[in-house]
Write a structure and sequence with these properties.
mainly alpha; Predicted_DNA_bind_prot_RHH; 114 residues; 5 helices
Length: 114
């Protein structure tokens, strides 16, 4: 195995079937210089995660959490459809908006994490 085998490969683009009428309509739009409706729909569907510009403002971090905290985070993520890292950013932001007294009250509250 060479180092070229370790390169990250670009994921294959999934091509969705298109009806004949949609194809013809899109071809007419192309001929008239209008935006492609099918390409826009596919682009929006395939864009997932962070784009190249936004990744510069994020850094990878590792934290140690209890099993209970991980389970709660998983449940929150599933029920809200929000990524776990985004949920943590939201919670950190909300906590930072509290007064020091409120922060201390929350920090000193026992949560039975044993």
């Amino acid at each position: 195995m060479s180092l070229t085998d370790l390169k990250r490969k670009k994921p294959k683009q999934i091509i969705k079937p298109v009806s004949v009428d949609d194809f013809i309509e899109d071809a007419n739009n192309y001929a008239l210089g209008k935006a492609s409706l099918l390409a826009a729909a596919q682009t929006q569907a395939t864009v997932k995660g962070l784009d190249k510009k936004s990744t510069k403002m994020y850094r990878h971090a590792t934290f140690t959490l209890t099993e209970k905290s991980i389970a709660q985070l998983d449940d929150l993520s599933k029920s809200t459809s929000i990524a776990k890292s985004r949920l943590l950013r939201i919670l950190i932001h909300e906590f930072s908006q509290l007064t020091p007294a409120q922060q201390n009250q929350i920090a000193n509250k026992r949560h039975d994490e044993t």
